[in-house]
């Protein structure tokens, strides 16, 4: 089934991009934060902002928006797998909330608290990486065998419309990150209407990619990061 193959390949490309961002931030944490005896408030804030960005980027993937809804109630195995994916998602979200609690309670983070923060970041990254792996190896195979041909055509059309809207936003002069944000909002709501009161996602910032032969990337000062209006407060 060529349409299913095309769709799954397109989704795999997006999966790879999100996976690289997660691995990059995980490497940054291990090579920088874990080597410190204390962590400043700005470093903790930077970590929370990046985790929020990564969580939202994972949430607004095409797999989440178009493929998973087509699999709901398809069969018992699909329901079980979606429950497993949701548990991994909740584990990642819990890690963000733990860090936000620390952000509101501490002036700085020292000694064993640094380890706790790093463990939370590691749990977050590991949970979402595990989710991506299960989607690639189990969800995609299940979808290929469970979704009917006409539904694949519908999903493929949704993906093309998503990309079309994204290209339109970029041509209008919006930065790529903001264009992706508007497109996700528009495609998520019935009729393509944008409702900022219902959906809020941050701009997708470039995450630090630490190579083995490079020195760790230092935390970005607050003035260089996204403005407060882009911050997302996890409820």
Report on this model:
The protein is mostly helical. Helix content is 69%, strand content 3%. Helix 1 (2-31) packs antiparallel against helix 2. A two-stranded antiparallel sheet has the order 1-2. Residues 191-235 have low confidence and may be disordered. It has one domain (2-148, 209-230).
Question: Short description, anyone?
Answer:
The chain is mostly helical and 235 residues long.
The order of strands across the largest sheet is 1-2
Count every helix, treating DSSP H or I runs of 4 or more residues as helices. Answer: 7
Average pLDDT for all residues: 77
**How many DSSP E strands?**
2
Oligomer: single chain
Q: Strand-and-helix sequence, N→C?
A: HEHHHEHHH
Molecular shape: globular
Helix content: 55-70%
Question: In whole angstroms, how far apart are the ends?
Answer: 41 Å
SS-based class: mainly alpha
Largest sheet: 2 strands, antiparallel
In percent, how much strand structure appears in the residues? under 5%
Q: How many discrete structural domains? A: 1
| Low-pLDDT ranges | 191-235
Rg from Cα = 19 Å
Tell me the layout of helices and strands.
Blueprint: H1 2-31, E1 38-40, H2 41-59, H3 62-71, H4 76-105, E2 108-110, H5 111-146, H6 149-171, H7 176-188
Helix pairs in contact: 1-2, 1-5, 1-6, 2-4, 2-5, 3-6, 4-5, 6-7
Key features of this structure:
3% strand, globular, 235 residues, mainly alpha, disordered C terminus, two-stranded antiparallel ribbon, 2 strands
């Amino acid at each position: 089934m060529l349409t299913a193959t095309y769709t799954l390949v397109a989704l795999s490309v997006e999966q790879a991009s999100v996976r690289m961002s997660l691995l990059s931030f995980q490497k940054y944490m291990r090579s920088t934060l874990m080597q410190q005896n204390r962590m400043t408030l700005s470093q903790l804030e930077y970590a929370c902002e990046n985790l929020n960005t990564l969580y939202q980027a994972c949430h607004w993937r095409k797999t989440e928006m178009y493929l998973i809804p087509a699999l709901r109630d398809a069969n018992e195995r699909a329901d079980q797998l979606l429950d497993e994916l949701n548990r991994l998602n909740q584990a990642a979200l819990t890690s963000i909330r733990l860090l936000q609690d620390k952000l509101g309670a501490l002036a700085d983070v020292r000694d064993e608290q640094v380890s706790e923060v790093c463990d939370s970041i590691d749990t977050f990254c590991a949970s979402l990486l595990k989710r991506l792996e299960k989607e690639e190896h189990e969800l995609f195979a299940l979808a290929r065998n469970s979704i009917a041909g006409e539904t694949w055509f519908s999903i493929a059309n949704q993906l093309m419309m998503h990309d079309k809207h994204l290209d339109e936003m970029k041509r209008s002069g919006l930065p790529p990150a903001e264009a992706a944000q508007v497109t996700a909002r528009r495609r998520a709501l019935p009729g393509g209407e944008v409702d900022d009161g219902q959906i809020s996602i941050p701009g997708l910032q470039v995450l630090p990619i630490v190579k083995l032969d490079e020195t760790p990337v230092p935390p970005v000062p607050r003035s260089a990061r996204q403005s407060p209006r882009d911050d997302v407060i996890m409820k």
